[in-house]
Write a structure and sequence with these properties.
Distance between the termini: 127 Å
Number of strands: 22
Structural class: alpha+beta
Order of helices and strands: HEEEEEEHHEEEEEEEEEEEEEEEE
Strand content: 25-35%
Number of helices: 3
Largest sheet: 6 strands, antiparallel, barrel
Number of domains: 4
């Protein structure tokens, strides 16, 4: 029984191992077949590609060579116009007050009154009281001076009366004759009395003037820059009570090159003429505004560091509100355009249209021609020339790498005349 049972188990174990070996052998065979088929497909694809490439190379047609119609470079041209052009000289400067004064009392005393507008930024009209100093001491001085005048006048009258008496007595003692000495007629005493009266009147005038000076004012409309006195403060004569500047006009010093001065006439420093106008532009409160000004004079000296000459521009009524614009306050940085002389029969060229400082490229019958220019003035945007170009000439504004006289070019566009821009 034991042998039969062991035999059965051994036979089952051998059968199981045989099945496992057969399964592994089948898997290896299947994997080999799949790999062999994929390799065959890949080789076939490669061979097919090689064949197609050989066919395409063998039957390839060379590309057709197209000859371009025109290889001339394309350029932009501008038509020029000859006319009379007003030269405009531009520059920058800072607005400054024409009149700026330090307010100082001419007498000493306690401040008893202050104008409500006597503060930084306040506007005070001409002859309007700024501050007042206690006038009582000066009023008493006037009364005292008036008494001295009255006393001197009485003394003069007495001397004149005594002189009349002396003349009468002389005529009684020496009828028909004139006294040999002026003392007899009291002439020196009368002159002395007159001098004393004039001295008393001068003292009275000084006392009255000091009384007037207790009321401090200015002869022009002003805006207060600073205030340095308060109510009840005792001030000495000459003490700076504040600073103000006049509102009638402001000035702008514009530094210019020496050659710019040749394009407009500068008035004489003693002249009041306003022949050369200037446009003042500035940005204020986020907007651009314009004021009208005039060239008044030069500063009379050359800046030693920049070698520039400053021209003074005056703008009248900078605080006027008639044109609905803000005031032109001192300290604002502005740009100034001075309207200068007329350049007759001139042509204006853009700066990028001029080559090598004095050459231009002209367009004529699809050809480029190099023209030498006589440039008489240059500004920020343009160059101006005379006696070189004619009305209707077309100038090339495009940039080219290589240029030769008479080379072929094509015009891309003809714009309007530069002077119509």
């Amino acid at each position: 029984m034991i042998n039969k049972q062991q035999t059965k188990e051994t036979a089952a174990k051998l059968l199981s191992q045989s099945r496992i070996r057969m399964a592994k052998s089948y898997d290896k065979t299947k994997t080999y077949a799949i790999n062999h088929r994929q390799l065959s497909i890949s080789i076939g694809i490669i061979l097919l590609g090689i064949v197609i490439t050989i066919i395409m190379v063998k039957f390839k047609r060379p590309p057709k060579r197209l000859r371009p119609d025109n290889v001339a470079p394309l350029v932009k041209i501008v038509q020029l116009k000859k006319e009379n052009i007003q030269m405009v000289v531009s520059g920058f400067g800072t607005v400054q007050p024409k009149v700026q004064v330090q307010i100082s009392p001419q007498i000493s005393g306690k401040v008893v009154s202050i104008n409500p507008q006597f503060k930084t930024g306040g506007f005070i009209a001409a002859e309007e009281e700024l501050i007042q100093i206690d006038p009582r001491d000066y009023a008493l001085a006037v009364r005292q001076a008036e008494a001295l005048v009255a006393e001197a006048a009485v003394k003069l009258d007495m001397e004149k009366a005594e002189a009349e008496v002396a003349v009468a007595e002389w005529q009684q003692l020496h009828p028909g004759t004139q006294p040999s000495s002026a003392l007899v007629l009291r002439t020196p005493q009368i002159r002395q009395a007159k001098a004393q009266l004039e001295s008393a009147k001068a003292k009275l005038a000084t006392a009255e003037l000091n009384l007037e000076r207790t009321r401090l004012s200015l002869p022009i409309d002003v805006i207060i820059i600073s205030q340095k006195v308060d109510l009840g403060q005792y001030v000495m004569a000459g003490t700076i009570a504040g600073t103000a500047y006049g509102t009638d006009a402001v000035e702008i010093e514009v530094p210019l090159q020496d050659e710019d001065l040749a394009w407009f006439d500068i008035p004489d420093n003693n002249s009041a003429a306003e022949t050369v106008s200037a446009e003042v532009k500035a940005k204020f409160a986020g907007k651009h505004h314009t004021w009208q000004g005039f060239v008044k004079r030069t500063t009379g000296q050359v800046n030693t560091s920049s070698r520039l000459i400053s021209v003074v521009i005056e703008v009248k009524e900078p605080f006027s509100k008639t044109q609905n614009r803000p005031p032109l306050l001192p300290g604002i940085f502005v740009e100034v355009f001075i309207k200068g002389n007329i350049l007759k029969d001139a042509v204006r060229l853009p700066r990028d249209a001029v080559r090598n400082r004095n050459e231009a490229w002209l367009f004529d019958k699809d050809r480029l021609h190099i023209k030498l220019l006589n440039i008489v003035r240059t500004d920020r945007d343009y160059l101006y020339t005379v006696d070189c170009l004619e009305d209707g000439d077309e100038i090339i504004t495009s940039s080219l790498d290589a240029v030769t006289e008479g080379m072929s070019v094509r015009a891309r566009k003809i714009t309007e005349s530069l002077n119509d821009e």
